[in-house]
Amino acid sequence: MSMSQQGQVARRTGPVLGSPIDALSWSEAVGRLVDWGARRDSRYVCIVNVHSVVTATQDSEFRSVIDQADMSTPDGAPVAWALRHAGFSGQERINGPDLMWKYCAEAERLGQVVFFYGGTEQALEKLKQALQRAFPRLRIGGLVSPPFRALTAEEDQADVDRINAAGTAVLFVGMGCPKQEKWMAAHRGRVQAVMVGVGAAFDYHAGTIKRAPLWMQRSGLEWFYRLMSEPRRLWKRYLVTNSIFVMRMLPQVIAGRAAPRGR
User: Global pTM?
Assistant: First the structure.
């Protein structure tokens, strides 16, 4: 067990294919966002699933980004299972869409400003409407859909200035993995807010992508629902990376080497 960079939060992490993933509850995850957001700490949070940990074994830059995150939550049933196997009994999935929604409820109650960066203009407009229906007093600092091309230094600085000027406590970033994680790592120290990479959460809450039924989410089958919804785009991500995950975890499971550790 160790303390975070400002000595405020004790972290417990377990290794999943070598990446340190936080063992924590929903209340702890949301609580960290609230506490860091209240101080407008410049931090970033990764929501880590099987695709993420497998990519980290193949991309050293991305591996460094995960390693240096202020919090990496176990998204995906296999990652949560790996932490349970490492000795953190009862570990749940801490996924992006639900973490975003749970935090927004607290942000509304506390008056913290939220900002959304990524996605399409259409999705962001629908997301804004959904947020206003669910959290009518939520302070939304802005919603920005950056172009898919690389931004110029001037464009990037303009976005950073807008986020900071809004008094943002938590910035949700929806660019997809690994782009959003690398963007957050590059902007730590510049964006004066907690950055959380939430992948397709904008589209889920906007209704532009349908999420799996609750029973499938709870059974660890959300990945299968997404695969059946978009087989051409996602078949490699799920079938190939899931197979790699199983094969690389197998020796660790057999040897029983996945012991809890502090960080």
Answer: 0.85
